[in-house]
């Protein structure tokens, strides 16, 4: 059986054996990384970060200055990349894309949605962000500028949506924040 005919799990295992044999990593490190990615990676993590920033001005400052530190302070891993938080304001709406592939803070947002990885989104949101956002149901007034952030393997982005009106507790705020809100294709 050639390599290409092996089931995916066997191909992955063979690749793991080769990178371990080449001294690039160890079985223990691979397992630790997979654990980190698969256990508890969900949009509620990003929502917790945002809700804390909405309710704690000092945490918000940390988040905007050093998002890796802010994520770590709530127990979330962002190992291996630089995280930047970009905050929506009445004048500016932020939206995130990876034009090259699908780079994305998976530990904070869970697995990326299909549309985020699609060629249509990756190519169009850069050229005509307002039209793409309108298709998501987000009509932005003309006076609101749109910033499109192109993620890479090294730098990934988290949008801090605008806080909803009303006297909501931090826990209630967590439930309002969606994955689309954290990518910038929806308001909260
Ligand atoms: Fe990518």
How would you portray this structure in words?
This protein starts with 7 loop residues before the first helix and ends in a 5-residue tail after the last helix. The chain has helices at 8-21, 27-38, 43-55, 57-65, 67-73, 106-109, 114-117, 119-127, 129-135, 170-176, 179-183; strands at 82-87, 92-97, 145-150, 155-160. A two-stranded parallel ribbon has the order 1-4. A two-stranded parallel ribbon has the order 2-3. It has two domains: 3-38, no CATH class; 43-183, Nitrile Hydratase, Chain A (Alpha-Beta Complex). Helix 3 packs across helix 4 (57-65). It is built from eleven helices and four strands. By secondary structure, the chain is an alpha/beta fold. The mean pLDDT is 93. The protein is 48% helix and 13% strand. Bound molecules: fe (iii) ion. Residues 98, 100-103 line the site of fe (iii) ion.
- What is the total domain count? 2
**What's the average pLDDT?**
93
Give the proportion of residues in helices. 40-55%
Give the strand order, joined by hyphens, for the main sheet.
1-4
Oligomer: single chain
By CATH reckoning, the class of the largest domain would read Alpha Beta
Low-pLDDT parts are none
The name CATH uses for the topology of the largest domain is: Nitrile Hydratase, Chain A
The CATH architecture of the largest domain = Alpha-Beta Complex
Main beta sheet: 2 strands, parallel
Estimate the global geometry from the Cα principal axes: globular
Which molecules are bound besides the chains?
Answer: fe (iii) ion
| Number of helices in the DSSP assignment | 11
The CATH homologous superfamily name of the largest domain equals Nitrile hydratase alpha /Thiocyanate hydrolase gamma
The N- to C-terminal Cα distance equals: 51 Å
Helix and strand element order: HHHHHEEHHHHEEHH
